[in-house]
Write a structure and sequence with these properties.
This protein has 234 residues and is an alpha/beta fold. The chain has a single domain, classed as NAD(P)-binding Rossmann-like Domain (Rossmann fold). It is built from 7 helices and 6 strands, in the order βαββαβαβαβααα. The protein has a 6-stranded parallel sheet with strand order 3-2-1-4-5-6, with helices on both faces. Helix 2 crosses helix 3 and helix 3 runs parallel beside helix 4. The longest helix has 22 residues. The protein starts with a strand and ends in an 11-residue tail after the last helix.
Length: 234
């Protein structure tokens, strides 16, 4: 199998690469990223790489380049997503929502049979209780969180893809936040800014108040549903 991962150099993408390289059925992996990692170090040395920013202004050029990379792939995994800079909503929307639309268009153009997309539990509509919900709970998002709004908009892009191209199998991963130890400093920078101290939980909490962030994160956390793998276990 040949797998192409868009956004493979990030937190989740690095973990996905490790998993793919240990899967005997996977013959080759191509990682596409805005900024390429150190391809001489593990695990990045175990993949082929191509540099591309899916938010570039020339949409047709981006779709055409993606389609060229996608041809012959058995599946595309789309992980690319921007959380910062919060002050630039146009850039976030162009990367997160229109970027997903471009990946979907390239999947169709290249004839790829499967698309896996990192959605989020944050795409779900809010709730006001602790009852679990099924995965068919509405993905209309939480209006006060631009992250949630963009995740809901991404879901509409996937709805259109499934409606117009039923030949493409679409898998939506609506996980909670995913962290790995190796990406700790990067994750802190995403959520509380580049100057935040990372020494203690107290310092992190202080920085979260000091650095501008998506004001809807608290609303999303308080109103998020519990569904499937996102439910707490005892």
């Amino acid at each position: 199998m040949r797998i192409v991962v868009v956004g493979q150099s990030g937190n989740v993408g690095t973990a996905v690469l490790r998993a793919l390289r240990s899967a005997p059925e996977v013959d080759s992996v191509l990682g596409i990223a805005r900024r390429l990692p150190d391809r001489t170090s593990a695990p990045y040395q175990d993949a082929d790489w191509a540099a591309l920013d899916i938010s570039e202004p020339d949409e047709e050029s981006v779709v055409d380049t993606l389609a060229t990379h996608f041809r012959g792939a058995d599946a595309v995994v789309h992980l690319a997503w921007l959380i910062q800079p919060n002050r630039d909503r146009e850039l976030l929307r162009r990367t997160n929502v229109e970027g997903t639309r471009r990946v979907a268009a390239a999947v169709v153009r290249a004839g790829v049979p499967h698309l896996v997309v990192a959605s989020s539990v944050g795409a779900y509509a809010t709730v006001d209780d602790d009852a679990t919900r099924r995965e068919d709970w509405p993905t209309t998002g939480i209006p006060t969180s631009h992250y949630s709004v963009d995740k809901a908009a991404q879901e509409r892009v996937l709805d259109e893809l499934e409606r117009d191209h039923p030949e493409v199998g679409v898998a939506r991963l609506r996980t909670a936040l995913v962290f790995q130890g190796d990406a700790g400093h990067e994750i802190v920078r995403y959520f509380v800014g580049p100057l935040a101290p990372v020494r203690t939980a107290l310092a992190l909490a202080y920085a979260a108040h000091a650095v501008p962030a998506d004001p809807g994160w608290l609303d999303m956390g308080m109103g998020a549903i519990c569904s499937g793998s996102t439910c707490p276990t005892t």
